[in-house]
Amino acid sequence: MPILASAQFSVSGKVTNQAGEALPGATVIIQTLNANAITDVNGNYQFNNVAAGSYTLKVSYIGFAPVQKAIRIAGNAKLDFELSNSGTITDEVTVNATRASAKSPTAFANLSKKDIEKNNSGRGFEYLLEQTPSTVVSSNAGAGVGYTGIRIRGSDGTRINLTVNGIPINDAESQGSFSVNLPDLASSINSIQVQRGVGTSTNGAASFGASINIQTNTRQDTAYAELNNSAGSYGTVKNTVNIGTGLLGDHFTFDGRLSRMLSDGYIERASSNLKSYFLSGAYYGKNNVLRLNVFSGQEKTYQAWNGVPEESVIAGDRRYNEVGYIKKTGGFYDNQTDNYTQNHYQLLYDHQLTSKLSFSGALHYTRGFGYYEEYKNDQKLTNYGITPVVIGGTTISNTDLIRQLWLSNHFYGVTYNLNYKPGNNLNIILGGAYNEYKGDHYDKIMWTQASTNVPPGYEYARDFAKKTDFNVFSRAELTLGDFLLYGDVQYRHIDYSFLGFDRNLNNVQQEALLDFFNPKVGVTYNISPSSNVYASLAVGNHEPNRNDFTNSTPASRPKSENLKDFEAGYRFGSKNFSANINGFYMLYKNQLVLTGSLNDVGAAIRTNIKDSYRAGIEVSTRLGITEQLTWLANATVSTNKVKNFDQYLYNADSDTYDLTQYKKTDIAYSPTFIAGSTLAYKPINNTEIAFISKYVSRQYLDNTSTVSRSLAAYFVNDVRLSYNFKVKGVKNVGLGLLINNVFSEKYQSDGATYPTIEGGQINNYNYWFTQAPVNFLASLNVRF
């Protein structure tokens, strides 16, 4: 009997609905152990190292009534659960319209709250996604805090659609999304879905490389309080407080979070001071949910967005930051900083109209304001609209000065969707949105080194922009036997009014009207309950960004980009092994790229390239080697080409631009091979040791396939340790240690190049975002 008591067994099973369909993402809890598991894509769950004894297992899944069962364990046990609809609407309705389902014919990856918590140690949001296929993540400051960026299939943030609860986050003009404006948002996220390629129709900017769909925290029925603290290398500190009331009076919940993040950064003077909060209140009725989210982020970062000059790296100084240099003193300006505040307000409403028809709608408003301040050496006064000053017979036409470039904007609108599901074989969604953006761009001189009679705060430039974005889409999934037929169509209309140049190069208000039609079709064939194959064709259209419009005349204005995305794949899932193989061919028309030339108003421009493409294969797997050892791995092999590319290099000797024509070259920032691996070992209950690896092949900094203007391949390895335990009066104490770049690989994950011709030779002027050698983050989580 003592031998039996000390034995460790496994408990596994499957969670389905009443139709026998798997429920991925369901939560299974062994209540007396406070252990939980999340079902995989096939509805399977498993607990390891469970001692013999009697236990109660509880299963919950949003939209279904929870079920609990008692079990006596004296050996490896199997226990299945069948859940029935609860008849109560849930928060999930808000995001379902823009998410792919388990059998959708598109490539996607889901991250659960448990996945997010494992990696939420203090680095930027993008690092949560680093181990998803075809993904490259970078940090401007080199240590993961401050400005962080992501590329998926070689596409940067301006081509990745980001939504929070179905509401667009990308800036309406630059089209980028900046997680530094919402620090520690990860601590308020319930789930994330990353769709690669065009994906399903969504709100906001077009998904030209991928879309990231975030759902923030949902209903928690019991009260809680949580303290999360992290500290580590380069003065990095994260403090987070989470609190929640649980369900009050069977109808109300209130949740809140307060966070701060500090870091000196790896690169010199790359400090970050980030603050944020998240407040949420909800009312749950039998047929409706009303939720108000108010969240905000404030960031102050010393500017490190230019990277480290290549010559400094070669000389052995990987941390040198030349931004803010003052020529007269040889020092650096202390307040060379970026300062921005972004406040978000979301009112989300879901209503179950009938057993077959539900409605989800949202009102939203985002208020953003801030500036970056910079020291400028030896500036011409006439460039700022200032007449040179004569003092004591000396004409002052140049001076050092400090300026602030301001942005103040408002973004508001409405999103909606109707979901009609008459039976298990048909699901129809009608959705859309109307959004307006109003932005003021204005610039000030705060100080001049020479006497210029310019008062502090002198405003020398201002322009106003307005953009309206309307879209409507319809999506349907029809199951016929073993086939699922998928159709999705979207119409999008854009009206953008901005300050630009007319044909006589006068700065005047202009307007651009754009209409896009984005159809998508696909089919999935279920080979067996555990495997399927799929194929799809999707069309996406993407408008030029602010600089493309404002730095052009109507005659030189770039065309919109068009993408035809072909996807095909195979999925397999079982208890101990799952795999997804996906092939893609992304055919671009009029892709916008930088050429190095200037346009008719003297600004650096992007130009349309008629033909370019990306083609590749993505593989992701999960292997349960033993009950304690699991291996997650993914790899992408791709070719990414621009056809008939013209590059213009400035020739300083002749003050002209020299043209070089290329027949076929690699698209910039598009590695041909990306791989990720997570080998996780659980030696005892509530303990995990994970070895995490990432390989990224060579990336070119421009579209010429020039090795001297590229980032070398890198292979980086991290170690993640975690241990959770309970003490009296505390639900959970979690200890964590993340050791990044354990072998101190010297690498740069991003960069830029500015080649010119001088003395008959090409000088590249490369800048690299160097990443930190071995560094760590230790964390302590206490949940009451």
Outline the secondary-structure elements:
Blueprint (H helix, E strand, L loop, with lengths): L1 H5 L1 E10 L9 E4 L4 E4 L5 E8 L1 E9 L2 E10 L3 E2 L2 E3 L9 H4 L10 E5 L1 H7 L15 E5 L8 E5 L7 E5 L2 E2 L20 E8 L13 E7 L7 E9 L3 E9 L7 E12 L8 E13 L3 E15 L5 E2 H5 L10 E2 L4 E2 L4 E16 L4 E24 L8 E3 L2 E3 L1 E26 L2 E23 L9 E23 L2 E19 L5 E22 L2 E12 L3 H5 L10 E13 L3 E22 L5 E21 L4 E23 L4 E11 L6 E9 L5 E10 L2 E2 L9 E2 L2 E14 L2 E11 L7 E6 L2 E3 L2 E3 L2 E5 L4 E9 L1
Parallel strand pairs: 1-7, 1-8, 12-15, 37-46
Antiparallel strand pairs: 1-4, 2-3, 2-5, 5-6, 9-14, 10-11, 12-13, 14-15, 16-17, 16-49, 17-18, 18-19, 19-20, 20-24, 21-48, 22-23, 24-25, 25-28, 26-27, 28-29, 29-30, 30-31, 31-32, 32-33, 33-34, 34-35, 35-36, 36-37, 37-38, 37-39, 39-40, 40-43, 41-42, 43-44, 44-49, 45-48, 46-47
Write a structural description.
- Keywords: Cell outer membrane, Ion transport, Iron, Iron transport, Membrane, Receptor, Signal, TonB box, Transmembrane, Transmembrane beta strand, Transport.
- This is Iron complex outermembrane receptor protein.
- Belongs to the TonB-dependent receptor family.
- Helix content is 3%, strand content 62%.
- The chain is mainly beta.
- The protein folds into two domains: 1-86, Carboxypeptidase-like, regulatory domain (Immunoglobulin-like), CATH 2.60.40; 216-783, Maltoporin, Chain A (Beta Barrel), CATH 2.40.170.
- The strands form nine sheets. The chain has a 22-stranded antiparallel beta barrel. The protein has a five-stranded mixed sheet with strand order 9-14-15-12-13.
- 41% of the residues are buried.
